[in-house]
Design a protein that fits this description.
Helices cover 57% and strands 8% of the residues. By secondary structure, the protein is an alpha+beta fold. Strand 3 and strand 4 form a beta hairpin. The chain is globular and about 55 Å long.
Amino acid sequence: MKTFNLDYEENSKIVALDDLKYKLSYFGMHFGGTSARGILAYAGVDWTPTYPVWRDEKANAPFELIPVLTIISPDGKELVLAENVAIDIFLAKQFGLHGTNPWEEAIINAYYSNSNTFFFQEIMNNFFWESQPKSNEEKRQYLDKMVNDQLTNWARIHEAHLEKNHLNGHYVGSRTTLADIRTTTMLDALEKIIGAERVASVVNTVKTPGIAKVRSQVESKPSYAAWRASEDYAKLNKNSANFVKDQHPELATSAEA
């Protein structure tokens, strides 16, 4: 197992350099890789998505888990970081997509964490994996409950906050932060699992104009739009659709669209 480089003083100098390159390693699907990929794409930096053969590379990953971020200095030195939350917060701070003071950081982290928890706990764990061995009728009940209860509650709570911020398309102040990007990437990944129409039954410009504007602001950034129009992204769409079809054929998502 690869461990972290502990030369903190030297590493802090490296991550402060200009012209860094980044490599984000995750399976060739959306889901757990969407957040970090979205931050890198939005920032418009020099980055490369990689798709490991996991059985060959697991032993070399910190914690033996992915995603894994590699930061590459101009002279070729590499630093490795693992764990979704650590990667996302590091990247957000690296690219000026976090708070400008401790309280802003706390609020951004709170809404980022809430979206992250909703996706991994309610969607991937409680719904996607736990309902897999159930009958089709039980799966339908799981899906209905997730959409009508958990997703609806998530949308209601986030929309109320965005209304307090004047429905300007941002969670904090008037600029894009980690919270905005995580909401956008989470909803995008959710659409790849249960289908865009199901998500739109709860999150849309009429019921949740604040959330819709957050997505619009993030997705209109040219570098982010270019990532979503890329060949890599199209392959992730196809792979994600095939994976969902294999695990939950009853869903009939529109992930390939």
